[in-house]
Design a protein that fits this description.
The chain is mainly β and 401 residues long. 12% of the residues lie in helices and 36% in strands. The protein has helices at residues 11-16, 83-95, 136-139, 285-294, 311-317, 341-344, 367-371; strands at residues 3-5, 25-28, 99-110, 113-125, 131-135, 144-148, 154-155, 158-164, 169-174, 196-203, 207-226, 232-241, 253-256, 261-268, 276-280, 300-301, 305-308, 325-327, 352-356, 359-360, 379-386, 389-396, 398-399. The strands form 4 sheets. Strands 1, 17, 18, 19, 20, 21 and 22 form a 7-stranded antiparallel sheet that branches. It is globular and about 65 Å long.
């Protein structure tokens, strides 16, 4: 089970230590260092996904239909393009110009003097005038940031606009008169397990615009990421994919086969084969809209401490449904923050939020991801269960501080 809270940044420490019945993947996160900015377990990255043929055994197979191996060089087999190759190539061609490599420089002062370091990651261009979205951990601790576009042009005049550490998102601005190609954003609430996806990024900080393909392996995954330096962060509602994601891919796009960004690649597991995680793009749209309009990072919030309802959580707490967000108190944390939008709307401990407007919690994404689509000041209709009875209330989302 994974507990979530929107009250104060200090709650993140409490909820990271409150993981209990439901197994949660724990992923150490590397700080930006030389070519290592992904959230990684240990020293190894995921191996690439191989898509190839096997041996097909079928009774009654007509031997005449089996191709006979040939050493002839009359025809170049590398020029034969399959439908799958054509689609992936088209996706890479469409999204590639919107993917950039990020290089960070850090200086750490200590008793022994000043130590310099370099890190690498990936970013997504989200506006024609040069706004870039990436992971917060890619630029964490950076003194300076530079960006290299898909054509190899280096931009050194880059401003860090702001961060959303709860969602591991940050925004940069390339200060240039050039016109950039923004990526097309898709809808992460309608993704399907098994659908094909493509990941693009600055693999290992050395191989810019590396393209890998795979499928959506799962949705709604909770992950606790730790850097190995004593800190940790909890991320929720992540997309699981077997498309290869390596150190340096952090902040890059996970793309559907229409060339739309549906996730931001952020975490990998080194002790597993084909397990990587991406932040759903919908959870960033509210903050992105604020950045593009005001030039500042501002996140909407509800103000509740909750558990994502699963069959296990429903059994443990005797809940009437197996989906939604269960508002509860844990480890001295208030279930509903005093003065928050949720408190003003009358939400209480033990209420189960099942919908925000027309989106169902669980089916269309986690509560945090759905709220992330909105901006501070937006009014939403909250549908909830109290004592088994459904009720609705309207509230105006606040600004997270």
């Amino acid at each position: 089970m994974t507990e979530h809270s929107e009250e104060t940044p200090t709650n993140k420490t409490a909820k990271a230590s409150a993981e209990a019945p439901q197994p949660v993947t724990t992923l150490p996160k590397k700080r930006p260092a030389l070519f290592a900015t992904g959230i990684v377990v240990g020293a190894l990255a995921l191996m690439g996904l191989g898509i190839g043929g096997g041996i097909l055994i079928e009774q009654g197979l007509d031997e005449s239909s089996i191709a006979t191996p040939s050493l002839s060089t009359d025809g170049d087999g590398n020029t034969a393009i399959t439908q799958e190759e054509s689609t992936i190539a088209a996706v890479a061609e469409k999204v590639g110009p919107s993917v950039v490599s990020i290089i960070t420089q850090t200086q750490i002062r200590s008793y022994y003097g000043t130590t310099s370091g370099e890190g690498a990651g990936t970013g997504i261009i989200v506006s024609k005038d040069g706004y870039v979205m990436t992971n917060n951990h890619v630029i964490d601790g950076a003194n300076t940031v530079s960006i290299i576009d898909s054509e190899g042009v280096l931009y050194e005049d880059v401003t860090i606009i702001g961060r959303d550490p709860l969602n591991d998102i940050a925004f940069l601005k390339i200060n240039s008169t050039d016109t950039f190609t923004p990526a097309e954003l898709g809808n992460s609430s309608s993704i399907r397990v098994g659908q094909q996806v493509v990941a693009i990024g600055n693999a290992l900080g050395q191989y810019s615009n590396t393209v890998t393909s795979g499928i959506v392996s799962g949705t709604g995954r909770p992950v606790t990421a730790s850097s190995g330096y004593g800190d940790s962060e909890s991320l929720t509602d992540l997309i699981q994919t077997d498309a290869s994601i390596n150190s340096g891919n952090s902040g890059g796009p996970l793309v559907n086969m229409s060339g739309q960004v549906i996730g931001i690649n952020t975490a990998i597991v080194e002790d597993a084969n084909g397990i990587g995680f991406s932040i759903p793009i919908n959870s960033t749209k509210g903050v992105l809209a604020e950045v593009l309009e005001t030039g500042e990072v501002s996140r909407a919030y509800l103000g509740v401490n909750y558990l994502s309802v699963t069959p296990d959580v429903a059994r443990e707490y005797s809940l009437p449904v197996t989906y939604g967000a269960y508002i509860y108190t844990s480890q001295g944390t208030n279930s509903v923050a005093s003065g928050s939008p949720a408190a003003k709307a009358g939400l209480q401990t033990n209420d189960i939020i099942v919908k925000i407007n027309d989106e169902t919690i669980g089916e269309d994404g986690g509560l945090s991801s759905i709220i992330g689509q909105y901006r501070p000041g937006d009014t939403v209709t909250v549908t909830y269960l109290r004592d088994g009875k459904e009720a609705t209330t309207k509230l105006t989302l606040g600004t997270y501080s």
